[in-house]
Amino acid sequence: MPLFEYKCKKCGQKVEFLERGSGSSRHVCPHCGGKDLQKLFSTFAAGRSDSSSDSGSSCPTGTCPLG
Ligand SMILES: [Zn+2]
């Protein structure tokens, strides 16, 4: 199940919600009950491209065999 992270605009707490099926479900902050939640981008899904940049690669030349 996809896990989405939200940030409550009212109390500033980070809240994680599991979303399944339709994405039109309303979420409510469990901390303050606020309904104004800002969706945050997942770290594993953001900036995913074929070229690896400054991510601490162990191959300085870029021609090293993988594995
Ligand atoms: Zn809140």
Concise account of the structure shown:
This protein is mainly beta. Helix content is 0%, strand content 22%. The protein binds zinc ion.
- Tell me the distance between the termini: 29 Å
Sequence stretches where pLDDT stays below 50 over 5 or more residues: none
**What bound compounds does this protein have?**
zinc ion
Q: Overall pLDDT, averaged?
A: 76
The count of β-strands is: 3
Helical stretch tally: 0
Description:
The chain is mainly β. It has a domain at 3-40: Rubrerythrin, domain 2. Helices cover 0% and strands 22% of the residues. The protein has strands spanning 3-8, 14-18, 37-40. Strands 2-1-3 form a three-stranded antiparallel beta sheet, with no helix packed on it. It is elongated. The two termini are 29 Å apart. The mean pLDDT is 76. The structure holds zinc ion. Zinc ion binds next to loops.
SSE map:
Layout: E1 3-8, E2 14-18, E3 37-40
Antiparallel strand pairs: 1-2, 1-3
Residues 8, 10-11, 13, 29, 31-32, 34 line the site of zinc ion.
What are the main properties of this structure?
67 residues, Rubrerythrin, domain 2, binds zinc ion
